[in-house]
Amino acid sequence: MSSNLTKVAEISKPHGVRGLVQLKLFIDLEYFLSLEQFYLDNSLPIEVSYKFSKKNHPIFQISGINTRTDAEKQSKKSILAPCNPRETCEPDEFLYSDLIGSKVLLKDQAIGSVKMLYNAGAHEIIVIQEDTTNKLFDVPFTAAHFPVINVHEKSIVLSEDAYSLFSTLND
Question: Which of 13-17, 36-40, 53-57 has the lowest mean pLDDT?
């Protein structure tokens, strides 16, 4: 097994009674389908077959999962693959894994870190946790709000305007 594995999906929930599962993909579906090797929770090699999408959720068959009960037991388990999804990104595209845990800088001062990201429909939202208060606040992920992103140093710069507006919305 390759030691350079990337989490590419997570088993979300069962679909039907014959062991099909819905996957939460962490990479583009097309890129996922181009991969040839998969592992369940960093140990067991598995075969993954795309079946169809329902309401924009991809449904798959995974070897060894033959019933709904099997699928329920595997819920929330990671699917890993030997790949580097960063290779498929354009210079102005970022993976969630590029950003989660990054230091958030205001001017040159660290104020917190990226706790998580989620999609709000029109764009992604970055959830920032402040270092001093542990308070969380959401900021739309736009170039205006985050003018500098350095994935190699795991740091992003938050604009002063965005900080002033979004850090105080829930006060």
Answer: 53-57
pTM (predicted TM-score): 0.59
In a shared domain, residues 12 and 65: yes
Whole-Å CA distances, 90 to 34, 41, 76, 77, 121: 18, 29, 29, 29, 21
Contacts 24+ apart (CB under 8 A), 91-95: 92/143, 94/149, 94/151, 95/26, 95/27
Closest C-alpha to 60, from 17, 6, 15, 5: 15
At 112, the amino acid letter reads G
Distance CA 111, CA 47 (A): 44
Residue identified by tokens 């077959």 is 49
Domain ranges, residue 126:
96-166
What span, in angstroms and rounded, lies between the C-alpha atoms of 109 and 136?
18
Question: Given CA atoms 89, 90, 96, 102 in this order, what sign does their dihedral have?
Answer: positive
How far is 3 from 6, CA to CA, in rounded Å?
9
Token pair 């946790």 is found at 129
